[in-house]
Amino acid sequence: MHQRRTSTGDVLRDAAEVLVEVSADGLAVLDDAGYFAGLNHSAAALLGAAADDLVGKPAPFSPNPRPDRVRHTATWTAPGGRAQDLEYRIEPLPAGGHAVWFRDVTTVRRQQRRLTAIARAASRVAESYSLPVTLEAVAQEIVRTANIAAVQILSVEDPSAELRILGMAGFGAAPDFVARLAACRRRGAHVRFLDAFLSGETVVDLHRKPLIMSDPVWAPLKEIMDRPDWDAFVSMPMSVRGRKVGVINAYYRPGEDPGPGSLAFLEAMGDQAAVAIDMAALLAQARSQAQSDERRRLARDLHDSVVQQLFSMRMQAKALRRGLDRIDVDGVRRAAEELAELSAGALADLRLLVFELRPLELAEHGLVDAIRAHAASLRARTGLAIEVRAPEDVRISGGLDFQEDLYRITSEALHNVVKHANATAVEISIAREDVDLVVQVRDDGSVAGTSPDRPGESLGLLSMRERTERWGGRFEAGPCAGRGWVVRAAVPILNGEPL
């Protein structure tokens, strides 16, 4: 019996050793210090190294995990640099140390993160009215998938013209990226994402970074491109309703090859970005058309009715005054002169209103010239000293909606000065401060006269704040040091465009 029991025990031990070795899951023994003391073949394969090379090395598993959980997770970086997510169970051994069972759940967890990112991106597209804010969020979601170090979402209309970055993550602050890229193109750099856009096919370059960093034609961009830790590059064209709108560029961490699952994820995120671009274009077109139609109608109605009538009144008053000169009726003459002055003032006011409804200077000459024209008109009408300061190199190339909001903020601030401030001078400044475009209106009037608590001003201040925050900006209004009041709107811009 004893011999049989001994033979049975040997058989069981041998069977256990075989089961350990043939198990598809990783099985390992840790010593009391948390170092690998032994591993089966599957464990070594999962960790990407030979078992002998791992013995004596620190394990990623905590010997004291949270007691309220049976399964735990750890991160392991394989010798090739690939990051892995491991799910494990750990139990103490009677003689000391711990036994660990684990498996690689990287693919499953990444797929879960990708699906979550796609859902969040879709929610952003549906909820946000700001294209830059939406696509910046989409870019951040892509980077959060862990195997992608950086990403760019670019709008491409004409490959030979200047490109526009709508979303970027992983590079840090790079407001001059487009300008540097243009310099590289002038040097003859081969821009792979233009290949993707022109061909309509995804471009995959597994070792792109070493080529860029060793090629002198990329010198203007090397500092920015070296910030994220990446190796492989993927550029995927974005299309919507049969029209190519741009590309999405992904920069993969070393050891992370862009496999089918990752490419499918990029395609889904690119679809969300393309939908956002298309929606923004349609909304802007509809909004611009509606505003333009309404302004044209109002301007036409005012011109055809009130302005013409007032012009006739003025001409009749002048004729009456000339006729009265012959009979010298002083009282009637004074009344006629007053009528002429009133009608002239009304005509000037209505012409200004027509300009306000349809500021042609804004569409034809841009924001700065439109503000100068408005300031000149207001200066002539009120006698208020208004100075407009704007550097010659200040660049504002955003759409008419963006420029019009800044124009309305300025005109509303000037309206408040005339109505409430009792001021003699106003200074309007338009300038770049870091990544912000700052428009500021400062007067020398009385602080009490421009308090935001005044009923006449509260709606105007609210309108100015809403126009600023619509573009992700910051609005401030308050008293200056000593005397006067200042209104300040700061909007982040990149290459002249609102972010």
Report on the architecture of this protein.
With 499 residues, the protein is an alpha+beta fold. The protein is 50% helix and 21% strand. It is built from 15 helices and 16 strands. It has helices spanning 2-22, 41-47, 51-54, 106-127, 131-143, 177-186, 192-199, 208-214, 222-225, 260-324, 330-357, 360-365, 367-382, 400-421, 455-469, and strands at 26-30, 36-39, 72-77, 83-92, 98-104, 148-155, 164-169, 203-205, 233-240, 243-252, 385-389, 425-433, 436-443, 474-479, 485-494, 497-498. Strands 11, 12, 13, 14, 15 and 16 form a six-stranded mixed β-sheet that branches. Strands 2-1-5-4-3 form a five-stranded antiparallel β-sheet. Helix 4 (106-127) packs parallel to helix 10 (260-324) and helix 5 packs antiparallel against helix 10 (260-324). Residues 1-5 and 448-457 have low confidence and may be disordered.
Write the layout of secondary structure elements.
Layout: H1 2-22, E1 26-30, E2 36-39, H2 41-47, H3 51-54, E3 72-77, E4 83-92, E5 98-104, H4 106-127, H5 131-143, E6 148-155, E7 164-169, H6 177-186, H7 192-199, E8 203-205, H8 208-214, H9 222-225, E9 233-240, E10 243-252, H10 260-324, H11 330-357, H12 360-365, H13 367-382, E11 385-389, H14 400-421, E12 425-433, E13 436-443, H15 455-469, E14 474-479, E15 485-494, E16 497-498
Parallel strand pairs: 11-12
Antiparallel strand pairs: 1-2, 1-5, 3-4, 4-5, 6-7, 6-10, 8-9, 9-10, 12-13, 13-15, 14-15, 15-16
Give me some keywords for this one.
Beta-Lactamase; single chain; five-stranded antiparallel sheet; 21% strand; Heat Shock Protein 90; alpha+beta; 16 strands; elongated; 499 residues
